[in-house]
Specification:
Number of strands: 3
Number of domains: 2
Shape: globular
Keywords: Metal-binding, Nucleus, Zinc, Zinc-finger
GO cellular component, one term: nucleus
Protein name: Transcription elongation factor A1
Order of helices and strands: HHHHHHHHHHHHHEEE
GO molecular function: nucleic acid binding; zinc ion binding
Helix content: 55-70%
Subcellular location: Nucleus
Strand order of the largest sheet: 1-2-3
Radius of gyration: 21 Å
Number of helices: 13
Structural class: mainly alpha
Amino acid sequence: MEDEVVRFAKKMDKMVQKKNAAGALDLLKELKNIPMTLELLQSTRIGMSVNAIRKQSTDEEVTSLAKSLIKSWKKLLDGPSTEKDLDEKKKEPAITSQNSPEAREESTSSGNVSNRKDERNARDTYVSSFPRAPSTSDSVRLKCREMLAAALRTGDDYIAIGADEEELGSQIEEAIYQEIRNTDMKYKNRVRSRISNLKDAKNPNLRKNVLCGNIPPDLFARMTAEVQTRSADEPMTTFVVCNECGNRWKFC
């Protein structure tokens, strides 16, 4: 299965390099019939190949099917990613009480699925409608855009999400530059602090929210005091970043 997906990815990468997407539709249709897993997405990086085809192709059927595949793969981020997780999920005892009958649990679960679907649709609409960052020939700015894009590639979330990390990095840099209007030390410290936040292994939800569009690039660029995150086994944590010196600390 993995070898087959890798073969598809290589074919699509060649199509992108040659700027000839002939045959892409057939490959995408074959991919649609493959039961995708998060591990398969991470090991083959097929999401990047499909996203590249989507951006380059002028065939509406190709772009539509590519978007559909990427959207379906995003759902893997919301559920258990391994067979072990699925087994553990099945072993969890059912929680029942007079105040929480099974019917209510079913209704709540359906509501949560519906809410997640609405959130994903809102993300897709936002990301596609956000204006592209204007190009620049400034070597300092170009380097900063590259470093921000590299920070967004930390982990494999950007593959499953299908985000254009290079464009997002450019949008973040553009917002920083428009506020500071210079590439002096203040500008560099601001870029450095954003990169540090995006790479932070203890705060992965921040990076996911930026990739998904929940946190717009311009908001992330000027985000000053706190980014809050909560997981099931840790208290509310506030991350503080100084825009002047780039120093970073946290408190609970």
